[in-house]
Write a structure and sequence with these properties.
296 residues, mainly alpha, 0% strand, globular
C-alpha cells in the first residue's frame, strides 16, 4: 500500500489515470444515486404522510412489509424486462459500447445518460488530479465534483436538491477548510452563511413582488455549500456565472418552444456549473477581472 501511494505521489500521469478510472467507477454509482435517491425520498414522504393522517402504511401492523429499496438493494436491473445487471454489464462506458446501448436480455435501449455521467465523472476527476496534483486538495476536489454531478442530474430530473447531499457537502467543505484547503476557515464560514442568505433574500423579494416562488430552498443550501468550500470571495463569481448560463439556457428553451414561459427551470445545475468553474479557474478569473478594472 505504501508503495502504491508513493507511486501516486511520484508519477503525476499515474495519479491522473487512477483518479480518472476511479471517477468513472464512481460515476457508475452516481447513476444509481441519481435514479434512486429521489424515489427513496418519495417513499419516505409517503410513509410520513401515512403516519400523519392515520392511514395504514406499508409497514403498519397487518400490512405486508415494503421491499427494501436503497442505494444498494435491490440489484440494478433493466426497467423493461427486470434482467439483473451482471458485473460484466456494469463496466463504466465499456459495457454500454459492447452492448451497443441495448439490454442484453430484451434489447431495449439503454439511456445514453449512463455513459455520459460516467464519462463526465471520469474526465472531471482526471482534470482535478492534474489541476491540484497529489494531495488533500485533489481528494477534496473529487468529492466536490462527484456531489455536484449527482445534484445536477437529480435537479434536472426532479427539480429537487436532496438534503442528503447538500448538507453533508456543506459540512465537509467546512471540515476541509479547517486546513485551509481552498479557503481559510473564516472565509468558509462567512461563505456558507452568505451563500444561504443571498438566495434566501432573492427568494423572498421575488415572492413579495410577484406572489410566486422563484426558487427552492435546496438552491439556498447548495450555494451555502459552495461558499463553505470556496469561501465568500468566490460567491459573486459563482452567482454571476450561474445566472448568465441559466439565463442563456432558459431563453434558448423558451425560443425553441421546449418550455413555456411559466415552466420552472432548475437553477441547481447552473449553480453547480458555476461552482466547478470557480473551483478550477476562480482565482485566475477574479485576478484577471481585477487587472482589467485597474487599467486606466
Amino acid at each position: 500500500m505504501t508503495h502504491f501511494i508513493q507511486l501516486l505521489q511520484d508519477s503525476p500521469l499515474f495519479f491522473i489515470a487512477v483518479c480518472g478510472t476511479v471517477g468513472m467507477m464512481v460515476g457508475s454509482f452516481l447513476n444509481v444515486v441519481i435514479h434512486r435517491l429521489p424515489k427513496m425520498m418519495e417513499r419516505e414522504w409517503l410513509a410520513h404522510c401515512s403516519g400523519l393522517n392515520g392511514s395504514a402504511g406499508p409497514d403498519s401492523a397487518g400490512a405486508e412489509p415494503a421491499p427494501r429499496y436503497n442505494l444498494v438493494v435491490p440489484r440494478s436491473a433493466c426497467p423493461h424486462c427486470g434482467h439483473n445487471i451482471s458485473a460484466p454489464e456494469n463496466i463504466p462506458i465499456v459495457s454500454y459500447l459492447l452492448l451497443r446501448g441495448k439490454c442484453r436480455s430484451c434489447g431495449a435501449p439503454i439511456s445514453a445518460r449512463y455513459p455520459l455521467v460516467e464519462a463526465l465523472s471520469g474526465l472531471l476527476s482526471g482534470y482535478a488530479a492534474w489541476h491540484f496534483g497529489f494531495g488533500l486538495a485533489a481528494c477534496a476536489a473529487l468529492l466536490f465534483v462527484w456531489a455536484l454531478l449527482a445534484l445536477t442530474f437529480i435537479d434536472f430530473d426532479t427539480q429537487l436538491l436532496p438534503d442528503d447531499i447538500t448538507l453533508p457537502l456543506l459540512w465537509s467543505g467546512l471540515l476541509f477548510n479547517l486546513a485551509g484547503t481552498f479557503a481559510d476557515l473564516r472565509g468558509a464560514v462567512i461563505g456558507a452563511v452568505a451563500g444561504y442568505l443571498v438566495l434566501w433574500a432573492v427568494y423572498w423579494l421575488f415572492k413579495l413582488a410577484t406572489g410566486k416562488e422563484g426558487m427552492g430552498y435546496g438552491d439556498f443550501k447548495l450555494l451555502a455549500a459552495i461558499g463553505a468550500w470556496l469561501g465568500w470571495q468566490m460567491l459573486p463569481l459563482v452567482i454571476l456565472l450561474s445566472s448568465l448560463v441559466g439565463a442563456v439556457v432558459g431563453v434558448t428553451l423558451i425560443v425553441a418552444a421546449r418550455h413555456g414561459r411559466n415552466a420552472p427551470i432548475p437553477f441547481g445545475p447552473y449553480l453547480a456549473g458555476g461552482g466547478l468553474i470557480a473551483l478550477f479557474w476562480g482565482q485566475a478569473l477574479t485576478q484577471g477581472y481585477l487587472r482589467l478594472l485597474a487599467v486606466p
